[in-house]
Amino acid sequence: MKICPECKDVIMYCKCMEEMEEQSQKDILDKLIKFVDDNSFIHPVTIKWFDLYSRILTNPKSIENNSNDGNIVVSYGNSRPKIPSIRFTGPLLIRLSVFKEHINHAYEIGKIREVDKYLRNLKDDQWVKF
Predict the structure, then answer these.
(1) Count of beta carbons in the 10 Å neighbourhood of residue 41
(2) What is the pLDDT of residues 56-65, one digit of tens each?
(3) What distance in Å separates the CA atoms of residue 29 and residue 84, rounded to the nearest whole number?
(4) Per residue in 18-71, pLDDT tens?
(5) Positive or negative, the Cα torsion across 16, 22, 25, 29?
(6) Strands 127-129 and 41-44
(7) Is the pLDDT of residue 80 over 70?
(8) Cβ neighbours, 10 Å, residue 111
(9) Is the CB of residue 111 less than 8 Å from the CB of residue 65?
(10) Which helix (H) or strand (E) holds 48?
């Protein structure tokens, strides 16, 4: 039986680990947003943004990857996704705002670690920049 050094309770009953994990994910979110801003990134290139989007969608009806042309098709049927769709047209600041909403959504659904790793592994030419 392990005892938490913070609250001196049994680890399986204490909330400290849960709070530390939540803070850790919040730190990842903050550092990822800073990474995007510091590098003047707006969003990943088309295929990479679609790939990311498909990873963070909640409750899609289907996600199909057409290996012939590389297109990813996402269907919601009659329902709407919980996050805004990808925007490749329009002002850069609106596209950046939508991309950051996607990052925040990943945090909210507990996938910020996966998204952080994915985005940091993109090459420089896989980003749209200011």
Answers:
(1) 19
(2) 876 655 566 6
(3) 19
(4) 677 777 899 999 999 999 999 999 999 989 998 998 888 766 555 666 656 666
(5) negative
(6) antiparallel
(7) no
(8) 16
(9) no
(10) helix 46-56
